[in-house]
Amino acid sequence: MSSTGRDRAYGATGGNRLLDRVLAGTPPEQSPVRHVEHLAERPARYGEWPDWAPERLVAALRARGTERPWIHQLQAAELAHSGENVVVATGTASGKSLAYQLPVLTRLDLDSRATALYVSPTKALGTDQLRSVAGLDLPGIRPATYDGDTPGTERDWVRAHARWVFSNPDMLHHGVLPRHSRWARFFRNLSYIVVDECHTYRGVFGSHIALLLRRLRRVAEHYGAAPVFVLASATVAAPAELGGTLTGRTCHAVTEDGSPRGGRTMALWEPPLLEEVTGENGAPVRRSAGAETSRIMSDLVIESARCLAFVRSRTGAELAALGAQRSLREVAPELVNRVAAYRGGYLPEQRRELERALHSGELRALATTSALELGVDISGLDAVVIAGYPGTLASLWQQAGRAGREGDGALVVFVARDDPLDTYLAHNPGAVFDRPVEATVLDPGNPHLLRPHLACAAAELPLDERALEEFGGETARESVARLTEAGELRARRNGWYWTARQPPHRSVELRGSGGQQTAVVESDSGRLLGTVDPESAHGLVHPGAVYLHQGESFVVDELDLDEGIALVHAEDPEWNTSPREETDIAVLRTQRQRRTSHGLSINLGEVEVTSRVTGYLRRMPSGEVLDQLPLDLPERTLSTRAVWYSLDEELLVSSAPGGAGLDPARIPGALHAAEHAAIGLLPLFATCDRWDIGGVSTALHPNTGEPTVFVHDGHPGGAGFADRGFAALFPWLAATREAIVACDCSAGCPSCVQSPKCGNGNEPLDKAGAVAVLDVLLAERTDVAPA
Ligand SMILES: [Zn+2]
Ligand SMILES: [Zn+2]
C-alpha cells in the first residue's frame, strides 16, 4: 500500500477515518487496499451576473439560491450569448444547467417569439430540467416536455405554443423531424439547441446522434433559423473535438470548474483470491466486487456515514443491498432498514423522496446502477463505493463526485472486479489520478449508419450538394449513389428525393447498430422485452441463454432467425450463460501500416469477420463452470474495421536479445492471452466497452503469412475504436503488459488474461508467453516508421 499526499493540508481527515474503520481488524499484510490518494479541497470561484441578463431572470435565480454564478457557468453563458457554439465539460454537481439556462432564458425573455430545444439521453433527466426551468416561474417561457409519454392533446399545444421544448433523440427522430412542417413555428424561431450529458453519446449510439443533430440543424436552417448549440458534458478529454464531431460545427470548450469540492480520500481496493473455489480451466477466483461492496457498505452504515454504492447491474445492486442488510442483521439489527437498492424507473416524486432520505441520513446506504449518474441530485455524501470500473474515467469521476463534504472530507472506494482493466487500475494509480480522461469516440462517417440517416434526411427535405458536404462529403456522395442505385432515392435537377410513400424513419434504430434487430418476446404474455443487434443475437439470445432485462431474468426457448424473434420465459436459474464461438478474420483493405526493421508490422484497415456460435457454457456466479452445451447456428459475417499487428515468427522463437524465446508450441497461447488482455484494456484509451470490440489471434494468418493479433470493432463499419487503438497502440500495449504482470495468479485468471466472452473456452492461454510477446512488441516502439 502506498500513499501520496497531494494536499494533506486540507480536510482529508473524515475520509481517512472512515477508511480506517472499514479496514479495522484486517492485518496489514492482508489489506486489500493497493493505494490511497488524497484529493484536495477546492474552493469556489465566482463571477458576476452578466449585464445582458434580464433583471427578473437574475432575481429568480437568486431567489432559487444562486447568489452569483461560478466562473465556468459565466464563461459558457457568455460564449453562447455571443452566438458561439459551446461545450461545458466540468464535474458532477457543478451546475452545468445554469450555463445554458442563463443565455437561453435571456433570449426567450427578450424575444417573445424565440424558441429553444433541450435534448437529453433519458426522460428522467429531461423532466428534472423542465421542473428546474418551470420553477423559476418566468412569464411567457412556456416550457413543455415532448416525449413518448406526452398525450396527444398536449402535443398539439406544444407544437403551437411551447417556447422551450424538452425532448430526447428518439422523439426527435420518430416524432418531430418526419413531420417538421407541423413544427414550422418552432423551427423558424429556434435560437438554441441544448444537448445535455453529451458524453453519453459515444460509439454507435453517438454516431447516430451526430447524424441526427445534422438533420435537425438542416431542418432548422430550412426555416431560416441558425440555432446555437450549448452542450453539457462530464469531464472528458478533448471536449471541443467531441462537440465538433457531434454537431458538425466548431465548438468552444469551457473546462475550468469553479464549483467548490470537499477534500476526499480515495482508496483502490483489490478483493483477495479465494482459496476454496476454482473457475474455468482451474483458474483462481477472487472474492466478488459485489460481496466486498456489501461489507464496506455495512461498515459505513455502522459509522453513521451516508453512502452510495455504484454496482454494474440492477440485480447486482439488489444483491449488494441484501448482503449489507444481512451483515447488519447480525451486528446492528436496528440499522437494517437504513440500506436500500435503487431499482430505477422511479417516478420523479419517488426519486425526490429518495434524495431527501439520503441527504437527511434517514437512509444511510443506497446501492444503485449507473442510472443514478444522470439527473439525480445527490451529492455531498460521506462515502461512495464504486464496485467495478464503470467503463470510463469520466463516469468514475462522475460517480466519485457524489462524495465530498465541505470542510470534513469524504471517502471514495474503488473495488476492482476480476477483469484485466480493473486489475490494471488497482495497481496503477497513475492511470486513475494522473491521466487525463479518455476521448469520447464516435464516427458519424460510418457508411452503415450514414446511409439510413441520409435516407431519412432526404425524406425530410431533398438532399442537395451542400447537404452532402455537411454529411461528410465523399462518403455521403457514395452513400447517396448507393441509395439511388437501389431505387430509394431519385436524382432530380435540384437534388435527391425520397421515393417511397412511407418515410424510412421507423427502420432506423438509434440505439442499434443499423441491421435487422431481433425482438425478445415473452411467450406467455406476448410482451416485447427489448431488441438485440444482429451482431449479438446469436451470442445473447440463443436457445438456453439466460437473458437479463431490467434486472429480471429470462431463459430463451427459441430463436427464430428468419422472423427475427427470440421467445423467452421468466426464469431465474442459479447460473448465467456465455456463448462459445468460432471466428475467422480476413483483411479486405489495409489503410495504414507501420513497419519496423525487425519485422513488426502494425496495421489499420477493413476486415471481414466470419463467426459461428457453436455452444454455450453454464457458469455459477462464483465463476465455477457447470457444463458446456452444443448449439447449431448458422455462420454470419461482419464487415468492420480492425487494428492488427503481425510479427516475424523468428522474433518470437529467438532467444537472442530482442526475441521472445518462445517454444513454437507456446505461440498460439501467448498470442491469445495477449489478445484477451488487450481487448480488456482498450477501454482505457477509447470510450468503448469490451463488448463493443472483438479479437482474433492466430499463429499463422493467411493474409499476413505471420503470427497475427487482430482487435476489431464489433459493429458493421466500426465506431472508431480500432482507429483509436491504432493511434494509441504502444501506450495501449504497455498498459496491457502491466495489467498481466500485476495480477498475482500463476497461470492466468479473469483478472488478467481470461475473457468472459472468449469463443474458445479460454484455451489455449499462456500468461507468461503473453508478457514475452508484449515485451518484444514494446521493444520495437522506438523503431516504428510510418510507411
Ligand atoms: Zn490473473
Ligand atoms: Zn479467446
Automatic annotation (TrEMBL):
Transmembrane segments: none annotated. One of its GO terms (molecular function) is nucleic acid binding. It comes from the Bacteria. Keywords: ATP-binding, Helicase, Hydrolase, Nucleotide-binding. It holds the Pfam family DEAD. Residues 77-235 form the Helicase ATP-binding domain. GO terms for biological process: interstrand cross-link repair; nucleotide-excision repair. Residues 296-448 form the Helicase C-terminal domain. PROSITE patterns: HELICASE_ATP_BIND_1, HELICASE_CTER. NCBIfam families: DECH_helic (TIGR03817). This is DEAD/DEAH box helicase domain-containing protein. It comes from Actinopolyspora mzabensis. The lineage of its organism: Bacteria, Bacillati, Actinomycetota, Actinomycetes, Actinopolysporales.
